[in-house]
Specification:
The structure holds three protein chains of three kinds.
Chain A lengths: L2 E12 L10 E12 L3 E5 L6 H8 L7 E6 L2 E2 H7 L1 H7 E4 L13 H11 L6 H14 L5 H4 L9 H14 L4 E5 L7 H18 L2 E6 L2 H7 L2 E6 L2 E7 H6 L4 H9 L49 E2 L5 E2 L5
Parallel strand pairs in A: 3-8, 3-9, 6-7, 7-8
Antiparallel strand pairs in A: 1-2, 1-4, 4-5, 9-10, 10-12, 11-12
Helix pairs in contact in A: 2-3, 4-5, 4-7, 7-8
Chain B lengths: L3 E11 L4 E12 L4 E5 L6 H9 L7 E9 L2 E2 L5 H7 L4 E5 L12 H12 L5 H14 L16 H12 L6 E5 L7 H16 L4 E6 L2 H7 L2 E6 L2 E7 H4 L6 H8 L39 H5 L5 E3 L3 E3 L8
Chain C lengths: L1 H9 L1 H18 L1 H4 L30 H37 L1 H16 L2 H12 L3 H11 L2 H15 L2 H9 L3 H37 L10 H8 L7 H29 L1 H6 L1
Helix pairs in contact in C: 2-4, 2-12, 4-5, 4-7, 4-8, 4-10, 4-12, 5-8, 6-7, 8-10, 9-10, 10-11, 10-12, 11-12
The chains are: A alpha/beta, B alpha/beta, C mainly alpha.
Chain lengths: 320, 320, 276
């Protein structure tokens, strides 16, 4: 399978003033990933695990400290220099907060025609407006004509997130990065947004990275799942493998603590010690060592290598 | 007699131009030692209800009618003086951002001592300290927290402190308003377990206000489903969440993806939340309900009482 | 739109300020019609008391004070508005670029802003006016070029907070260039506090001009309130009216712009608008 994006040893450190070595915030700490064309990759992690930083690195909103991101085999630094708009067109992001995604002073028409204008799609304002109306109606915003003159503050969160998805799809991108796209929406609206995302990506063969802290939703939408903990991917594999055959203790903890809407379902929650730590002064051992219920002495000596468990399932733990 | 009886409660916010009916004709009995979860989306009036019970809403801009009987005493008729005595001692509350109510420049133990003395001015230092350490043990905090400052604690620890603080005077009713929402999955699961465990030994009634049904499913005995300020369905969780009678409850449950079991398609509820400044002569959910019939648009449904304290406000159950 | 008008009508400061300003502008436009005498013509009635012939009396050279005050409004408004416009444009651009770009660019610009802040502005204007002559044009340009630091700092803060907003990030991922983002998103959204700030800058520019004229560096060819006061200072004991009316005119004008600035500030301050 062709891979669309390849990440090698991607690292983002925030070095506080004074350059104190101990206080470096290792938001993303050496990630290797690849995403194939048309694939949906879910990234799960608690707050502070670096998943949003990863998203920002992927759309080049931030520059990595080390490591490289290759888009279609070419490093993105090179693409940005040679053909900035090509990268921007093909790599779109959907943000967490739909209420803040759009300039409050622009109406929907302006919001949706701006990307078309930036990328020289459509020859006149009239033609661009026709394009957005067509796409809006396809995505279930009917009648689109009533909406295009409204302002963001007049729409609900669900409607805004739909506009956000429409805007990113307008450019026919090859990759969509969705950073917690439903976490700020009401439960009854979430399902719709997720279904729209899923249908659009499948229909146009777009790859998607779906970032969330919600395990159940991510599993619903993703083909492949990566679990992140303190800036590192601890386990990656197909959705089925992760849910049913999780190997890393942290993955197991997450899954066992995932609440269900079934009151009869009594799960044995795996207890962990302590609180989610901050990505400061980690290592040299396994980052999860202090909270892990399976930890042994070897765990605090060195960080475990990724182990190949077959079928694209990898985990980094000594106790597999 | 129930511990808390709410009868025909109406809460209206008044602004210059319009009146927003946040809670409409709401009746509920809460028995002593119950744990009851109030579920609703944004704008359902669940938080207003909590604030109304504590009478914490601004007097100038809100109108409250109906009755809130706590141990047979109508809270709405009590003087401010008597209410102050009641709050925290008999009814206490933990908010999502309760941690913000602690002063950042004083040690946690010191602040807790202060709060303890508000209602019990004549106790010895020894006793206060003993009580606080006992509370720390309840919520799984180490004694060390006593001498820490609020900023030294993580979100989960702060919320534990908030819960400890709310239990300081052995309250009869504890209201948790989205108290675990901002926490990570793992921490949330653990705190919920701790709350349930510590209830066993106490004469405590818990009211849990949340948008997350899974929280209610895993930690409450009863559930109340609110929408647009109205009670749509209430009863024991094993009845309501397994075999929901109201179309809204069904829709809400269908919107939650399940982690285990067969993969079913997610279905949301189309449309958006009702405009609460309007007067509704119909079922408040009618315009989003796919089962709505003529009667639903003509008449406000009465609450039907089914066996086992199961209340449903829907025309489809017959009796019109 | 309707909403904005109701808000303005609730805003006392803005209402009074705008009324004052309209009166002022009308006076400036119709100065030749309103003035009873030519303000430049000398007269034999020296230091005449206010009377029906000379409404505000005459000065030491026999010029009609009323007509001078009326014509003086033209100078003050011109100086105030033009100088404030220059300083706001410079301040907005510099502050916007510094705040939005951040990093090394921000550090350099901030140092430049600090340098300008430390300059004793009034003396700089004095020197420039003394060297290049105190024509009205020079005075406007010098005031404009030296008073932008406040605006720049305000805009920088605005741009820094806007830069972190999702809509700016989303504009970047869409592919809009930095220039487009700065002019389409950062500046228009950060403008509001600048508007109230510039209105207040108008009043300080008017005061600067009056001060310059007072010490004799103003444009000798135009009537200005500062100059009237400077002239009247010598006659304070026997001709109080010369200084008084010009002084009142300055206070009135400065107050008008200050009230408008304050009113706009209140109107746009989220704390106030949210309650409405």
């Amino acid at each position: 399978m062709d891979s669309l994006i390849e990440i090698e040893d991607l690292t983002k450190w925030y070095i506080p003033k004074g350059r104190n070595e101990d206080k470096i915030i290792k938001a993303v700490d050496g990630i290797d990933l690849s995403i194939n064309k048309g694939e949906v990759l879910g990234i799960i992690g608690e707050s502070g695990c670096g998943k949003s930083t990863l998203a920002r690195l992927l759309v080049a909103l931030e520059k990595p400290t080390f490591g490289s991101i290759k888009f279609e085999g070419i490093p993105i630094n090179q693409i940005l220099k040679e053909n900035r708009l090509y990268f921007k067109k093909n790599c779109q992001m959907i943000f967490q907060d739909p209420f803040d995604t759009f300039d409050p002073r622009n109406n929907i028409q302006k919001i949706l025609t701006t990307p078309l204008k930036t990328h020289d799609i459509g020859s006149s304002h009239k033609k661009r407006t026709d394009i957005i109306i067509k796409v809006m109606e396809e995505a279930g915003i009917k009648p689109a004509k009533d909406f295009i003159h409204r302002y963001p503050h007049e729409l609900s969160g669900g409607q805004l997130q739909r506009i956000s998805i429409i805007r990113s799809m307008l450019l026919n991108p090859k990759l969509i990065i969705a950073d917690e796209p439903v976490s700020m929406l009401d439960v009854s609206v979430r399902a719709d947004i997720i279904n729209i995302l899923l249908n659009l990506t499948k229909k146009h063969g777009v790859s998607m990275i779906f970032i969330s802290h919600d395990i159940a939703t991510t599993c619903y939408i993703s083909d492949k799942i990566a679990i992140m903990y303190l800036g590192k991917v601890v386990e990656i594999g197909s959705t089925d493998d992760i849910i049913k055959k999780a190997k890393h203790p942290y993955t197991k903890v997450l899954i066992s603590n995932c609440a269900s809407i079934d009151p009869f379902e009594k799960k044995d929650k795996i207890k962990v010690k302590g609180e989610p730590p901050t990505p400061v002064g980690t290592g040299p051992g396994c980052y999860f060592y202090e909270r892990c219920y399976k930890s042994c002495n070897g765990c605090k000596e060195s960080y475990p290598e990724m182990m190949d468990l077959g079928n694209g399932h990898y985990a980094s733990c000594f106790n597999i | 007699m129930a511990l808390l009886e709410i009868k025909n409660l109406n809460i209206t916010y008044k602004t210059d131009k319009k009146e927003i009916k946040a809670v409409k004709d709401f009746s509920l009995d809460v028995e002593a030692k119950d744990s009851i979860g109030i579920v609703g989306e944004s704008g359902s009036g669940k938080s207003t209800l909590a604030m109304g019970i504590l009478k914490l809403l601004p007097k100038e801009t809100t109108k409250i009618t109906g009755k809130i009987l706590f141990n047979g005493v109508d809270l709405l008729k009590l003087s401010e003086e008597k209410l102050r005595n009641l709050r925290w001692r008999d009814i206490s509350v933990v908010f999502q951002k309760s941690m913000n109510s602690l002063s950042p420049v004083h040690k946690i133990g010191f602040q807790m001592e202060d709060i303890y003395r508000v209602h019990e001015p004549n106790v010895s230092d020894e006793e206060v300290r003993k009580r606080i350490l006992e509370l720390f043990k309840f919520v799984n905090l180490s004694d060390r927290v006593y001498t820490l400052y609020p900023h030294e604690l993580s979100g989960g620890m702060m919320q534990r402190v908030s819960i400890a603080l709310s239990l300081i005077h052995y309250p009869k009713l504890l209201i948790l308003d989205e108290a675990t929402t901002a926490l990570d999955v793992v921490t949330q699961g653990q705190i919920l377990d701790e709350i349930m465990k510590l209830e066993e030994g106490l004469d405590l009634t818990r009211m849990m206000i949340t948008h997350d049904i899974s929280v209610v499913a895993s930690s409450c005995k009863k559930v109340v489903v609110m929408y647009g300020g109205c009670l749509l369905e209430s009863g024991y969780v094993q009845d309501v969440l397994i075999n929901p009678k109201h179309p809204y409850t069904q829709g809400l449950l269908d919107s939650f993806p399940a982690l285990t079991g067969e993969k079913k398609n997610l279905r949301g509820i189309p449309g958006s939340i009702p405009d609460l400044s309007l007067e509704y002569k119909s079922c408040i959910f009618a315009n989003r309900c796919k089962k709505a019939r003529d009667i639903c648009f003509k008449k406000v449904p009465e609450t039907k009482i089914l066996p086992n304290e199961w209340n449903v406000a829907c025309h489809l159950l017959g009796g019109f | 739109m309707e909403n904005i008008f109701t808000k303005i009508s609730f805003n006392k400061e803005l209402k009074i300020g705008v009324t004052f300003l309209i009166i002022l502008i009308l006076i400036a436009i119709f100065a030749p019609k309103i003035a009873t005498h030519d303000p430049y013509v000398l007269n034999d009635d020296i230091i005449a008391k206010p009377s029906s012939r000379y409404i505000f009396g005459t000065d030491g050279l026999g010029r009609d004070v009323f007509s001078m005050v009326i014509y003086g409004s033209r100078t003050s408004i011109k100086v105030g508005i033009l100088a404030a416009t220059i300083s706001s444009i410079i301040g907005t651009l510099i502050g916007g670029i510094a705040g939005y770009m951040g990093g090394i660019i921000d550090r350099i610009i901030s140092e430049i802003i600090n340098m300008f802040l430390m300059l004793p502005t009034f003396f700089l204007i004095l020197i420039v006016a003394a060297i290049y002559g105190g024509s009205l044009k020079n005075i406007i340009i010098v005031i404009g070029l030296t008073s932008w630091t406040g605006t720049a700092r305000l805009m920088r803060a605005q741009a820094m907070s806007l830069r972190e907003r999702t809509f700016v990030k989303s504009a970047k991922t869409i592919g809009e260039s930095n220039k487009e983002i700065l002019f389409k998103h950062i500046i228009p959204n950060g403008m509001f506090p600048i508007i109230s700030d510039s209105t207040m800058a108008v009043s300080s520019a008017i005061l600067s001009e009056a001060g310059l004229s007072f010490i004799g560096i103003g444009d000798p060819n135009v009537v200005s309130w500062g100059k009237i006061i400077a002239h009247g200072r010598g006659y304070l004991t026997n001709g109080w009216w010369i200084c008084t009316f010009a002084g009142i005119a300055i206070i009135f004008t400065v107050l008008a712009f200050y009230l408008i600035g304050e009113g706009i500030n209140k109107l746009l301050n989220p704390k106030f608008s949210r309650s409405n």
